[in-house]
Amino acid sequence: QVQLVQSGAEVKKPGASVKVSCKASEFSSIGYYIHWVRQAPGQGLEWMGWINPNSGATHYAQNFQGRLTMTRDTSITTAYMDLSGLRVDDTAVYYCARVGEVTDALEIWGQGTMVTVSS
Amino acid sequence: ETVMTQSPDTLSVSPGERATLSCRASESVINNVAWYQQRPGQPPRLLIYAASSRATGVPARFSGSGSGTEFTLTITSLQSEDSAVYYCQQYNNWSFGQGTKVEIK
């Protein structure tokens, strides 16, 4: 069973950047898009964007254009989400998720990374 | 962006009864809709993809239907462990509904 393991919790000041990692347990996951989704405390899910680990191509939600960068390192089966210009309302749990083998829905999820933005 | 609107916001159902959750898309998403279950403190879990296909390991009491702009998740014979928030998602251009909280009476 493929697993996605994310990096640990972060506390940042407003205006700073945060980089969250997401490591797949199997190299076969290289062929499957990775998405990032966030969830503010007590709120719903917000889709942020995806990365194609093979090509490095990305697509971001309009809300994050200019602040969000997704990258990957195929040699270590790890994807990264970098969010800059942090604001207090960026405080959330950030999830990475992998599409399924037979669907573009998000079948495998990381455990989540809490990012707290506070002065 | 395609807006997904779920109803109701909260649903209170007795054990063993049926729960019906709705999701409406602001434009046609064909059948590119998934449903997820999220329990407190856990990541979402994929239940249904392609509007009506159950994901691996999902109990048969969960079923999905619909196409175009109207979609439904049905949970028959509700069990205590089904208490959670349920989200629909369209993966044409990617957006989630606001969620429906299912409570057990």
Helical content of chain B (DSSP H or I, runs of 4+): under 10%
Q: Profile the largest sheet of chain A.
A: 7 strands, mixed
* DSSP E strands of chain B, number: 11
Q: Please tell me how large the radius of gyration of chain B is.
A: 13 Å
Number of strands of chain A: 11
End-to-end distance of chain A:
40 Å
How much of the sequence lies in strands of chain A comes to over 45%
Query: Unreliable segments of chain B (pLDDT under 50, ≥5 consecutive)?
Result: none
The assembly state of the depicted protein chains is: heterodimer
Helix content of chain A: under 10%
The first-to-last residue Cα distance of chain B is 36 Å
Could you tell me which chain pair has the largest interface and how many residues each side has?
A-B, 21 and 23 residues
Give the H and E element order of chain B: EEEEEEEEEEE
Q: Please work out how many helical segments of chain A DSSP would assign.
A: 0
Low-confidence stretches of chain A: none
Shape of chain A: globular
Describe this structure in words.
The complex is a heterodimer of chains A (119) and B (105). The termini of chain A are far apart. Chain A has strands at residues 4-6, 10-12, 18-24, 34-39, 45-51, 58-60, 68-73, 78-83, 92-99, 106-109, 113-117. In chain A, the strands form two sheets. In chain A, strands 2, 4, 5, 6, 9, 10 and 11 form a seven-stranded mixed beta sheet that branches. Chain A contains no helices and eleven strands. Chain A has 119 residues and is mainly beta. Chain A is globular, with a radius of gyration of 14 Å. The mean pLDDT of chain A is 95. Chain B has 105 residues and is mostly beta strands. Chain B is built from no helices and eleven strands. In chain B, the strands form two sheets. In chain B, strands 2, 4, 5, 6, 9, 10 and 11 form a seven-stranded mixed beta sheet that branches. In chain B, strands 1-3-8-7 form a four-stranded antiparallel beta sheet, with no helix packed on it. In chain B, a hairpin with a 6-residue loop joins strand 4 and strand 5 (45-49). The model of chain B has no long low-confidence stretch (mean pLDDT 97). Classes of the chains: A mainly beta (119), B mainly beta (105). The A-B interface holds A 35, 37, 44-47, 50, 61-62, 95, 97, 100, 103-107, 109-112 and B 1, 32, 34, 36, 38, 43-46, 49-50, 53, 55, 85, 87, 89, 91, 94-99.
